[in-house]
Amino acid sequence: MLAGVMEYDGDSKPVILKAGPSLYIPAGAIHSPRNLRSGNAAGQATCFVKYGEPFLVLDK
């Protein structure tokens, strides 16, 4: 997290992040972030993808 307060909800219990800490989300894990404040929040994601494989595959 770069700024603000976000809640990440996924396969396990929700995690609340403030500016500073980081969070590891395993490949393929379903998750959704939610801004917990009225102001802006900002985060940075780093994703590792095998060469030649798609970054994202949408369910039909």
Tally of DSSP β-strands: 3
Reading the helices and strands in chain order gives: EEE
Query: Helix amount, in percent?
Result: under 10%
Number of helical stretches of at least 4 residues: 0
What is the chains' assembly state? single chain
Shape by Cα distribution: globular
Please summarize the sheet with the most strands. 3 strands, antiparallel
Write the layout of secondary structure elements.
Blueprint: E1 5-10, E2 15-18, E3 31-35
Antiparallel strand pairs: 1-2, 1-3
Describe the structure.
- The chain is mainly β and 60 residues long.
- The chain has one domain.
- Helices cover 0% and strands 25% of the residues.
- The protein has a three-stranded antiparallel sheet with strand order 2-1-3, with no helix packed on it.
- β1 and β2 form a beta hairpin.
- The protein is globular and about 40 Å long.
- The model has no long low-confidence stretch (mean pLDDT 88).
Structure keywords:
single chain; 60 residues; mainly beta; 25% strand
Task: Offer a quick outline of the entry.
The protein is an all-beta fold and 60 residues long. The protein contains no helices and three strands. It has one domain.
